[in-house]
Every structure is written in structure tokens, then in C-alpha cells.
Amino acid sequence: MSKKILRRAGFLAATLAASIFTGAQAAEPIKIGSFLSVTGPASFLGDPELKTLELYVERINAVGGVIGRPLELVHYDDAGDASAARNFASRLVRSDRVDIIVGGSTTGATMAAVPLIEQARMPFISLAGAVVITDPVKKWVFKTPQSDRAAAERVLQDMKSHGITKIGLISGTGGFGRSGREQTLALVGKMGMEIVADVTYSPSDTDMTAQLTRIRNTPGVEAVFNFGFGQSPAIVTRNYAQLGIDLPFYQSHGVASDRFLDLLGDAGEGLRLPASPLLVPDSLPNSDPQKAVVTSYKKLYEERWNMQVSTFGGYAHDGLMLAVEAIEKAGSTDREAVRKALESIQGYVGVTGVFNMSSTDHNGLSADSFRILEVKNGKWKLIN
């Protein structure tokens, strides 16, 4: 074989090797890390969140991925334990070397991981609700649910529009309920309203009749507001009906799901709460910018998993899509570039609301992004 042929063969081999190497580089996955409460007491949050992430990673990869690279979901189940969440966040950063984290079903799990995430300079989009997650602003931390402050404000606005100014407040002592109570107490005075009864319950309590009786016996109470999540708000609602309390009753966004209705039976009739329009997509006018997004998500989720969609899965949808939007905007997975891109997102229409992020707002949603829903004949009805 001549030297010319050998040289040509060597050139072709080198070219092929370079092509394979370049192709391998181009196909290197973008790693989306996640720790979620898929099992345990907060599984009603984490299970639909994981299902949503899996669904949309599959769909995004089917159309070519992001910036020419497939997505790879690396997830762990923290079972609602804050210590486990912190350990999994550490593993995602140090061992799995993910590019961004979308997760944290609960406020406790999220806040346990935040110091490590800030230290690692890792973009993180939380799926938990408490205002403390993004207020004060933390450079690397964002979130998709409206804050408990926004939820309290929206409920108080609705009460005030009906002439209600004196409120009985009942709340859980867990992280979500405690923060929601604090935000409600901070807002009422500014809105010309008053908390005339203030009682709490433990997440382990199986009956809240005593607390509700105290509220019922307090002079001047015009409406009752419960701030909590998990099984407890369902117990509160059933006890409320059993006591025959004839006052307007509000829950927080922490129970905004069809599954919650299943736990109530007839006890929930007339109950109001702030929620995403995801629970009532058919009630939205065609002019509503969220209608197409929530209708599509609901259809795809329910077809894929053969189960009802939930607001909490919607938080995961928005978290992943905001991550994708930021990576595309940055044109890379460079952490600082992605973080800056997240901060600059404006007018992004999600399941939860229309996001307008900034350097001073890492949530990007106002109280107006909530819709007020009421239980009518065992189903959610859009009020305003």
C-alpha cells in the first residue's frame, strides 16, 4: 500500500474519530437534578411533580432536546425529610454534577438545601411556597408557586370585597402553616382588617373541633381562614361542617387539587381558596393567555398517567420550562449565564401564572395570578 493511501486512510480515520468525538460532545446530556417528596406525608406534592418532570423530559427529548442536547433527569425521593433533602442536594451537586436543580416539594426541604446550593453557585428552582424561599432574594434560588404572602393577600382581598373585616385564623404549626399565619398577620392591619381569633394545630392532630369551637365562640368573627397543607386541612373542613359553623370558610392554595375534594365529600360545599386556573381550564375565556397552556398540560398529564392533574404538578411544569427557557436564552449550561437568564425572564406564560422575574424578584408572580375558586356541588368553580 502506498504512503499516499496510508496517509489518506490515516486522515479519514482521524476525521472520523474527530466527528465521533464532536458528536459525543454535542449529545452530552443536560442534567436536570431534582429532590422531591414522592413518598411520605407530602407525596401528594412530590408524586405529581415527578410525573410531570418525567413526562416533559420525554417530550422535550422527542423533539431534539435543548440547545441540541438531550435532557437527563436525575431525581431522588426525600420522603418529606429535610435532612434527606439536604443530603440529596449535596449528591446532585457534588457527585451527579447536574446543571440545574428543579425540586424541593416542601419549604422545609427547600430551605435545608439552600445554604449548600448558594455555596455551590447552582441555579435552583424550588417548587415550594413559603415567601422565605425568595424573600430576601438569594442569588441562586428561584421558585414557581406563588408565595404564601400572595395567597394570604388574595384571600383577604376576596373577603374585603364581601365586607368581611374580622377573621378567625386557624393554621398548622408546620413550616407552611406557620409562615402562612405570619404573612396573614402581617397583612391584615394594612388592609384595614383584624384577626379576632388565632388558633393552631399540629400536623399530627386528628381532630380540630376544640380549635374551631374557640373560633365559633369568639364574638365578631365574620369568616374563617385556614392555612395548612396535607391531610390536616381536610380534617379542619370536615370538623367545620360537623360543628355547623355558618360563616364563609377559606383555605389556602396548599390544598388546591381535585384530590383534596375527594377527601371532603359534602363537607367542602361553599369553601373558597386561591388557586391556579389549572383546576378550571374550561371556565377560562379564550382570550386568557393561560388557557392554552393549562389545557395542554392537563390533557397530556392525564393521558400519560391516567390520573387527575394537580396544581402541584403544575409547579414542576413551570420549573422545568423556566429552566429550559433560561438555558436556551443563555445558549449554554454555564451556571452564571443560566442564573442571569432566569432573572431576565419576562412575560413567560406558565401553568401557575405569567412570570416576570427580575434581580429583586425571583418568583415573578403577584397575588393577581391567583384565581378564587369555590366548591359547588363537589367541584371547583371559578369565581374571579
TrEMBL record:
Q: Which SUPFAM superfamilies does the entry mention?
A: Periplasmic binding protein-like I
| Pfam families per UniProt | Peripla_BP_6
Q: Does the keyword Signal apply?
A: yes
Which controlled-vocabulary keywords does the entry list? Amino-acid transport, Signal, Transport
Q: Where is the Leucine-binding protein domain?
A: 29-378
Q: Does the keyword Glycosyltransferase apply?
A: no
- What are the boundaries of the signal sequence? 1-26
Similarity annotation: Belongs to the leucine-binding protein family.
Q: PANTHER family of this UniProt entry?
A: BLR7848 PROTEIN, LEUCINE-SPECIFIC-BINDING PROTEIN
* Protein's recorded name: ABC transporter substrate-binding protein
Provide the organism lineage as a comma list: Bacteria, Pseudomonadati, Pseudomonadota, Gammaproteobacteria, Oceanospirillales
